Structures are given as C-alpha cells and as structure tokens.
Amino acid sequence: MEIIIASMIAFAASFAAIPVVIYLSRKKNLLDKPDQRKQHKEPIPTMGGVGVFVGIMASAIIWTGLLSLLEAISISFAISMLLVTGVVDDLKGLSPLFRLCIQSIAAVVAVHAGFVIHFPNIFHIDGMFMMIFEYVFTIIVIAGVTNAFNLIDGIDGLAGGLGFINATLFGFLFLFLGNYGFAIFAFSFAASLLAFLKYNFNPARIFMGDTGSLVLGYLMVVFAIKVINLSASTEWTTTFVLVVFSMLLVPVIDTMRVFLFRILKKKSPFSADRSHIHHLLLKTGFDHKKASFILCTANIILIVEAYLLSNVKIEFAILILLGSALFLIEVLSIKRFFKIRTRINVLYHDYRTISDDNLLLLKYLNSKKKI
Predict the structure, then answer these.
(1) How far apart are CA 286 and CA 298, in angstroms?
(2) pLDDT tens digits, residue range 298-319?
(3) Residue 148's Cα: distance from chain center in Å?
(4) Checking phi first, is residue 32 left (phi over 0); if not, alpha (psi -120 to 50) or beta?
(5) Structure pTM?
(6) Which helix (H) or strand (E) segment is 44 a member of?
(7) What is residue 265's DSSP assignment?
(8) Which among 320, 321, 305, 196 has a CA at the least distance from the CA of 252?
(9) For residue 259, what are the contacts with CB-CB under 8 A and spacing of at least 6?
(10) CB 151 within 8 Å of CB 251
(11) pLDDT tens digit string along 198-240?
(12) Could you give the CA distance from residue 21 to residue 30 in angstroms, rounded to a whole number?
C-alpha cells in the first residue's frame, strides 16, 4: 500500500509541478534555443528535472523513513547538489570539467554512505589497498554513469524512457530482495519520470535538462550498486549483477564509443557534436518517437539477455553483454547503408537515363547527316 501511495504522491506532485516550470521558464525566458547541433526548431523550456525532483522529494516523507539515516541524508544531499548544478548549467553553462568534479563529489558522498562496489579478493591483496581500490573504482563508475545518462539526454523521451524502464525494474528487484525502502524510492522515481514523459514526448513541451539527467544517472548507478550489495549473500548474485549491468549499457557504451572517436580525431572527448547513437538514428530518417522507442527496446533486449545468461560464468556473460551492446548500436544505424545504396541506385539510374538520351540524340544527328 505504501508503494502505491508514494508513487501516486510522486506522480501527482511532478504532474502538477511541470506546467508551473514551463510557465515560469517561458515568462523568464529560460529556454533552450535552437542551433545547428540541436533538433528542435523553436525555443523550448528546459529544467524539466525540477518537476521530477519535486515528485521525488514529495514522496520522500514515506521512503526516507525506511532507509538508514546515513543513506537518506547522503542521497538527498547528493541529488540536491546535482540539481543545483544542473540549474546553473542550464541557465549559464558550466564547463565539462566542473560538472565532472561535482559528479565526483556526489560519488564520494555515495561511497561514504556505503554504496561501494566490492570485489572478491582472489589474489589476497592487502586489505587497505583493496579498500582504496574499491573506493576509487566506485567513484569513477558513479561519476561515469552519471555523465553517460547526462549525455544520452539528446532527443525527446529517450532519457526519461530509459529511466522509467530501469527505475521500475529496480523497484521490483528491491522488492524481491526485501528492501522495502529502496523499492518505494525506485517506484516513486519511476512515477515522477512517467509524469514528466507526458510533457516530454515529441513534440516536447519541456526538456529534462541537466537538472534531471544528472539526478537520473546518479540514482540509476546508486540503485545498481545497492542491488548488487543486497544480492551478495544470495544464490542469485550473478543474475542480479548481470541484470543491473545490462540496465546501464546503452548510455555507457554510447558514451564510450563517442569519446573514443573524438579522441581518435584529436578532439576533446567532451566536445559537442552529433555522433551519439540517437543523432545517427535521426540522420537515417527516424523521428524522435521512433528513435527513442528503438533505444528503449534495445535496453529491454539487453536486460532479457542478461537474465538468460545467468547460468553462464559471469566473466564470459559480461563480455557477451558488452559485445551485444556494441553490436546493437551498430545494427541500429545499419539503415544508413540502405539509404546510401538507394542514393547510389538513383544516381546510377539518372546516369543511365542521361546516357540513353544522349545515345538517341546521336542517332538522330547521324540520321540527319545521312540525309
């Protein structure tokens, strides 16, 4: 019953708050204006994440009491800090390095609250060194995944759609593991995102902005670490690890791919361009709705595959999932090949038509000469 009540509170609060954010954004001219890199044609209000945040905090009266005090305070502080960072970034713009520093601070807060990725000490490494390694690795992962979800927020409905699917599944995973507090938290977050999607589906009336995508990415990876740690003492550890790993793959693999290509071109990995997978899908002719649907479907496919790989040795299963994610991203842009082939066929047909016309003209001129 508490899950339903919290979710309803979160949905209602976000659903009511977002129109207010839209109104105030238009009144104060806090709009995302079109340019050569962006897809929209008219200025659109941003900071939709503020509405999502309102839903999360409105339901906090229920879920915070079921978390440990340290977890509740740490998560609330971290997402509030990320929200403020997103607001400033949406209004004035912040450097990628500064945003990364804030994400790293939020990661340190999570680590301090106990959200740490642990490894089996199979090589009997010194305990202090192993602990430092786990802390540093966790900070890198949290900051990296937060940044990846921030970067995947490029078209209408995509980041919100991925977040809604994952948050809903996290809710069920927490329920299965018996952690009622985090289950309510995850379902409430999903409800807030669902309310946001009502205004964000193409044509969008508001964008999530950094205010929402930073909080989204942070909660996704924090939920993932919590699930892994809760499942460590169960017989389904491998299944849970693979499933939560797959839930983060679409934005993470896309970000790694884009960063690699930018570095190979001797550009900053944080330089803005149109090389993300959602940009490629738009270039091939898909609209925002279809591109978002395709990538959300790819996310679900990877989750199902992860579950089916539960009986495979975890190292091999992770490699298979990574390969599948890379394969899916490349296949999703395969329409480019058919589009290019179609253009070549059209050009060839035009060439043949011109050649045939020239041949007829030559025959006509020759016949005139004979006369």
Answers:
(1) 15
(2) 999 999 999 999 989 988 999 9
(3) 6
(4) beta
(5) 0.85
(6) strand 44-45
(7) T
(8) 321
(9) 269
(10) yes
(11) 998 877 888 888 899 999 999 999 999 999 999 988 888 999 9
(12) 10
